[in-house]
Amino acid sequence: MFAVLKTGGKQYKVQAGDVLRVEKLVADAGETIQFNDVLMLGGDAPVVGAPFVSGAAVQAEVIDQVKGDKVINFVKRRRKHSSKRTVGHRQKLTLVRITDILASGADASGVKLATGKGEAAPAAAPKKAAAAKAAPAATGSDDLTQLTGVGPAAAKKLEAAGLTTFAQIAALSEDDIAGIEAVKIKPEWVEQAKELAQG
């Protein structure tokens, strides 16, 4: 059985026992990691993902953190008073040995997810962002940036003045508006807040 996995912007066809040099991963030597981005599973009944095969994973053991071969970039401009530049680079790589190919049950394996140095954290981050967006609605405040001309900075000033809902802004009189010094409230904001408060 073989699998085609994706990591570090590259695709690799692997079998159990293969040793790979992949883009640097955040893992120490001896750790077991798991690649969840499996594009294809081959064997008696091949499965092609769209784009990934759900539930499939490839587990590997980290052998070592290594550097690739030196690459020299040499630039020379001919003619009189020309310039030349030499730059060397050695790519940081992770040496891994493929230990197992899972056709299903990758979520329940409990093995550390393989992430690169510059990659984002696993799927928990979007959930936190969604919770942060839902938090103002839960605390009884409205999204004041829906008012024309109110950006994030003006919304913070309105909240600092104690105005967190459309109903509060809609209920302001001209005297109330004149008494608020933190932010200059425009009359059209009051009209829009009345419409938005009604739904």
What does this protein look like?
This protein has 199 residues and is of the alpha+beta class. It is built from five helices and eleven strands. The protein has helices at 124-138, 152-160, 166-170, 174-179, 187-198; strands spanning 2-7, 10-14, 19-23, 32-35, 38-42, 47-48, 57-67, 71-76, 84-89, 92-102, 112-113. The chain has a five-stranded mixed sheet with strand order 3-10-7-4-11, with no helix packed on it. Strands 2-1-5-6 form a four-stranded antiparallel sheet, with no helix packed on it. Strands 8-9 form a two-stranded antiparallel sheet. The chain is elongated. Residues 120-139 have low confidence and may be disordered.
| Share in β-strands | 25-35%
What gap, in angstroms, lies between the N and C termini? 58 Å
Mean pLDDT: 82
Strand order of the largest sheet: 3-10-7-4-11
Which series of helices and strands comes N to C?
Answer: EEEEEEEEEEEHHHHH
Poorly predicted ranges (pLDDT <50, ≥5 residues)?
120-139
Tally of helical runs = 5
Q: Could you provide a short overview of the structure?
A:
The chain has 199 residues and is an alpha+beta fold. It has helices at 124-138, 152-160, 166-170, 174-179, 187-198; strands at residues 2-7, 10-14, 19-23, 32-35, 38-42, 47-48, 57-67, 71-76, 84-89, 92-102, 112-113.
Write the layout of secondary structure elements.
Layout: E1 2-7, E2 10-14, E3 19-23, E4 32-35, E5 38-42, E6 47-48, E7 57-67, E8 71-76, E9 84-89, E10 92-102, E11 112-113, H1 124-138, H2 152-160, H3 166-170, H4 174-179, H5 187-198
Parallel strand pairs: 4-11
Antiparallel strand pairs: 1-2, 1-5, 3-10, 4-7, 5-6, 7-10, 8-9
